[in-house]
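Fold this sequence, please.
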Amino acid sequence: MAITVNSTRENEDDQTVFFSIDYDGTKKWHGDVPKDADPQEWFDANEDFVKERMLRLQYRDADVPQLEDKTPLESFEAWIAGGAKNAEISEERITQAAVPAADAVMGERQKTVEGEEEVTTTEIVEEDGKMVQKSVTKTVVTNTPETKEVPLFDEAGEEIGMTTVPVMESYEITPAVEAVEETSETIVVRPESVVEKTPWKDTVE
């Protein structure tokens, strides 16, 4: 029998049991069990659970994978036998999101004709100690909406004259976008590490 009950203490809702266990050497510990349970029978039935809890106390940072067809205790013992190592955790992170190709977005607007225009303004300047009003002519660049004359017809289709209409042009609102493939890289979130075992400290009754 791996677990031996040494003494019990009655509590309001349960009972605290102090026991010795032969697991990697003799150790003393305690645990609470149901008030109406037989302490020895309860610990005999839950021996693996108690041992696994003890290992959790000694390897506090353990990340133990649950092995197929193994109990939690067997999985923990296999993890210790394998060097008590927490496995490396890595993940794929997207470094460049995929960008779909897109055609340019085009619009239409009236063309303009660039030209020059003489603009005369009146300015007051100081000359030889006198304030003189002068006309100043400057050349400015203009952008005039372009138009053209086209025939005008009546409802019967007969040409009745000419009319002026704007000259239109296409222009790029949004440039075309080339497709970009998604790229990613593997990032180590947690490197492999050995979990140090904490020495067992017996419970004092």
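The two ends are 21 Å apart (CA to CA). The longest strand covers residues 112-127.
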